[in-house]
């Protein structure tokens, strides 16, 4: 049998299309596995971190509902306790420590003016808005350093 006639044959073309179709189907299957793995890794610790990430009363929604025991889910207000290389530890309400992660994209304001991370000082009060990660930390999108005149007297 001649190789040129074999590659031009109808059987070879059909086999080539079948193999190409199987490769595409396997690629789609692999993409589905990767998406499923990503979703599973996110939800793995969902129950452990639910209250830290998404807010809600610590005793459940029907107990102590009127005491407003809600957790700040996508941000916090509090006093800076520690500053360490892009990470802030903030004492929030009610005396809970929150870990704030800063990136190069984090916008920082002091009052209404732009600020930089070096403007953050221990004992400053800040308002942080961000997104919780699966460890219960807040990935800060925006931080506002509050003026000392507005802070509670100790």
Q: How would you summarize what this structure contains?
A:
The protein has helices at residues 3-8, 10-43, 46-54, and strands at residues 75-84, 87-91, 97-101, 107-110, 113-114, 125-132, 138-145. By secondary structure, the chain is α+β, with helices and mostly antiparallel strands.
Task: Describe the overall structure.
This protein has 154 residues and is of the alpha+beta class. The protein folds into two domains: 3-43; 74-149, Beta Barrel (OB fold (Dihydrolipoamide Acetyltransferase, E2P)). The chain is 32% helix and 27% strand. Strands 1-2-3-7-6 form a five-stranded mixed barrel. A hairpin with a 5-residue loop joins β6 and β7. The protein starts with a helix and ends in a 9-residue tail after the last strand.
Q: What is the average per-residue confidence, as pLDDT, rounded to a whole number?
A: 80
Estimate percent helicity. Answer: 25-40%
- How many strands? 7
Largest sheet: 5 strands, mixed, barrel
CATH topology of the largest domain: the name is OB fold (Dihydrolipoamide Acetyltransferase, E2P)
What coarse outline follows from CA principal-axis ratios?
elongated
Number of domains: 2
From the alpha carbons, calculate the radius of gyration and give it in angstroms.
Answer: 27 Å
CATH superfamily of the largest domain: Nucleic acid-binding proteins
- Alpha-carbon distance between the termini? 95 Å
Helical segment tally?
A: 3
Give the percentage of residues in beta strands. Answer: 25-35%
> Would you tell me the structural class of the helices and strands?
alpha+beta
Low-confidence stretches: 64-70
CATH C-level label of the largest domain? Mainly Beta
Strand order of the largest sheet: 1-2-3-7-6
Element-by-element helix/strand order: HHHEEEEEEE
CATH architecture of the largest domain: Beta Barrel
